[in-house]
Amino acid sequence: MVETKTRKELPNFGYIANVKFPIEEILKLCESLDLLNFDNYNDIKVSSNSKQSLFVRVNAFNKNSFFKEEEAAELEGEKYRQIYLTELDPKYLDQPLDLSSNNSRMARQRRLDPGSENYNPVADELNYNTRNKLVTGLFETILDSFSDKITRVRLAYLSPNFSIKPHVDYDPSYITRLHLPIITNPNCHMHVFRNNVEYRAHYPADGRLYFLNAGLKHFASNNSNEGRLHLIIDMHGQNSLKDLVELECVEVSKE
Which helix (H) or strand (E) holds 11? Predict the structure, then answer.
């Protein structure tokens, strides 16, 4: 077992050494599953009535503040889209669900603690570990390659000339986040703020798994005329980081 590290102990960006997946085969799989039709990516829009709308509603502040374009309606948006490969454990769908959204740091911590009276299973990423029918072929191979508990997995489409806003998700001691770029270009970047300094890095579509320190303030930008597609894998545990190599990044103020 690898010792669990916090956001302060981990780099801004990194990649997993000695692990590569064939991007051309992943693209063929996406095509066969109609996953290159980005109109299908509606899992973070409440109007889509997807099972994921519960997660969107319980994180309404984040959705409205960071992920949708300003002109879009509440809990909607077209320029940042996702389609999920995992879903909420069905046992929680039959229980009364608290879908209230409170973005204070203390409230977020309480709702993720199973020992708290404020525990909210819909907000807890650890409960999004039920694979759906999209987990087949290489997607299944990729997820089966981890010894850590896989939680929320989704394909994320970032529209041309759009950036999501800076935000903080979860400390890596709770959720470790890896990105597998599938369609990208050099004008697509991940950004992280550490000690009030902004850094950025590009994740190429070279088959590698890239680490993002989502416990730090971060955002994604696409300053190109082409859409960007990443497979985002969240997991509980850090065995995947035993071969983590820090990725070179640029201090934005020094560009």
Answer: none
